[in-house]
Fold:
Amino acid sequence: MKLQSLPKLMIKRIQMTNNTKEGNFISHLVELRKRLIHSLVFLTILFVICYIFSEYIYGFLVNPYAEAVENDDINRRLIFTALQETFLTYLKVSFFAAFFITSPFILIQIWKFIAPGLYNHEKKAIMPYLVITPVLFLLGGMLVYYLIMPLAIKFFLSFESLGVTTNLPIQLEAKVNEYLSLVMKLIFAFGLSFQLPVILSLLARIGLINSTFLKERRKYVVVIIFAAAAILTPPDPITQIGLAIPLLILYELSIFSVNIIEKKLEEKNAQY
Structure:
C-alpha cells in the first residue's frame, strides 16, 4: 500500500510546487502591472500640467537662440508653415518635459519592483547608479543648453549673407518644430552619452571589463567617440567637439572608477 501510494504523493508534491511557481509568477506580473500603472498615471498628470505651461517651456528652450541674436539688427522670429505645426510642437514639448520630470519616479518604481529580490549587498551596489544616472543626464542637458547651443547657433548664423556676393540676402527664419527637434536631439545625445561611466562601471562589476582593458584600448575609444559624436550631433565642428571632449573626460573618469571597483572587489574576495 505504501509503495502504491508513493507515486501519488510525488505527483501531488510536483503539482504543489508548480502551483507555487505559477503563483509567484502571477504575483510578479501583478506587481509589475501596478508599477507600470503608477508610472503612466504620474506621466499623464505631468503631461497635462506641462501642456498648460507648454508655451513657457518652449520659451525656455528658445532662450539660447534669443540670447544669441539679441544684438542683431534683424528682427528675428520663429515661423511655422503648417496649421498644426505649433500645436504638435507644444505636445512634443509637454511630453518631453513630463518624461524628464517623471524619470526619477519611474526609476523609483523600477527599484521597488526589483529590490525585494536582491540581497543587501546587491542593493547597496545598485543604489548609487539609480542616483547618478539622472544626475549625469541632467549635466549633459545643462551642457547643451548653456554652452553648446549658444555656440552652435552663432556658428550657423555666421553663414548668413547680406546679398553682396549672393545677389539676394541669405537670412535664417527658424521653424518652430525644427528648432525643437534640434534641441531635443542634442539633449538626448548628450544625456545618453554621459551615461558612459555608469555603463562601464556596471560592466566592471560583473567582470566583463577591467581598468587594464580600458587603458589598452584608449586609442581605439578616441576614434569611436569622435565617430559617435559625428553621428549623434549636427554636421558642425562645435557640437561634435563639444560632445567628444566631455566623453573623453568621462572615459578617463570611468577608468578611475573601474580601478576603485576592482580594489573593493579584491578586498572583498580577500576577506573570504
